[in-house]
């Protein structure tokens, strides 16, 4: 009895160790048919006879993205939606550009761990554990920092020149929930009385944040 219980525990532990990222592929390639109306976990494969190099290629990370927006940063994703060949392969990249003072605001990726490589500049980065411990560091050109799966994290360019990173993910589509916009710019809106209680502030403050974060018309 005791032995079978410990076997079960070991089996469950092994299973969770191999099942924490995207599922393993069951064929060489399954290039996403992004236009298919069939709904599956991921995307259905397009006809193998129609697969070519274009399905595995993207040049959108070559140049800096425009950072003249509210937060002074721009994420350019190279995920399965841009590179259909990534379907079922469990990896993707992004390029993030930061103006001086620019912030990639606190957010989580529900489906991936992230690791960033600094292309240029210097960033103050950090993540917060579920025990509310902030793990933070300043990183510069050529350096690497990792953000564990699902944890809230951010990057800020406190320098006087632009900064940029390449971010890698162990998911074809990591997903992003930006904490402030998730709570204050959802559609339909999260009720004010949820936010006033959660943040221990008044309705006026909540309405002010909501108006600032409202999607630009
Ligand atoms: C790949 O196939 C598409 C059409 O499916 C075509 O437009 C494109 O030119 C092809 N690219 C290469 C590199 O052969
Ligand atoms: C950002 O700059 C580009 C190019 O200079 C411009 O076309 C665009 O309208 C600007 N966007 C905003 C939000 O100011």
From TrEMBL:
Subcellular location: Secreted, Extracellular space, Apoplast
Domain of life: Eukaryota
Binding site for oxalate: 104, 109, 114
Residues of the signal peptide: 1-21
Cupin type-1 domain mapped to chain residues: 59-207
A molecular function GO annotation: manganese ion binding
Pfam families, per the entry: Cupin_1
Stored SUPFAM superfamilies: RmlC-like cupins
Biological-process GO terms, alphabetical: plasmodesmata-mediated intercellular transport; regulation of root development
Chief place of localization: secreted
Family (UniProt): Belongs to the germin family.
Protein name, UniProt field: Germin-like protein
Native source species: Quillaja saponaria
Organism lineage string: Eukaryota, Viridiplantae, Streptophyta, Embryophyta, Tracheophyta
